[in-house]
Amino acid sequence: MATGETGFDDVTYDLISLQYHSLKAGHDYGQYVRDAKNAGRDDIAQFFAEVMEQDSQRAMRCHELLRELGGVDNTSPQDDVSSDADPNVTA
Q: Other C-beta atoms within 10 Å of 7: how many?
């Protein structure tokens, strides 16, 4: 698997990034829901709640995919990317 500039494989990094941003957005949307309710706009509050639920589902799917990647150590920096190196052994 190719590694990005961070030393982590690109797919793992991408999934973690998407999961983080989905969770962060979901946290922020809670305030948006409250703001809309305080403004008497239940329709907009419902919209924000729907978006928050979609981000929650997106974060959960990322979590599932990251768990599937757990068979190989894709969660730590990879110093030696040669094909015969064991990624689970540290030097």
A: 12
Q: Go through 20-52 and write b for each residue having 16 or more CB atoms within 10 A of its CB, e for each that does not.
A: eebbebbeebeebbeebeeeeeeeebeebbeeb
SS3 28: helix
Tens-digit pLDDT profile for residues 43-78? 999 999 999 999 999 999 999 999 998 855 444 444
pTM of the model: 0.64
Q: Which of 12, 16, 28, 30 is nearest to 59 (CA)?
A: 16
State the amino acid at position 32 in one-letter form.
Answer: Y
Task: Give the phi and the psi of residue 7 in degrees, each rounded to 5.
Answer: 95, -10
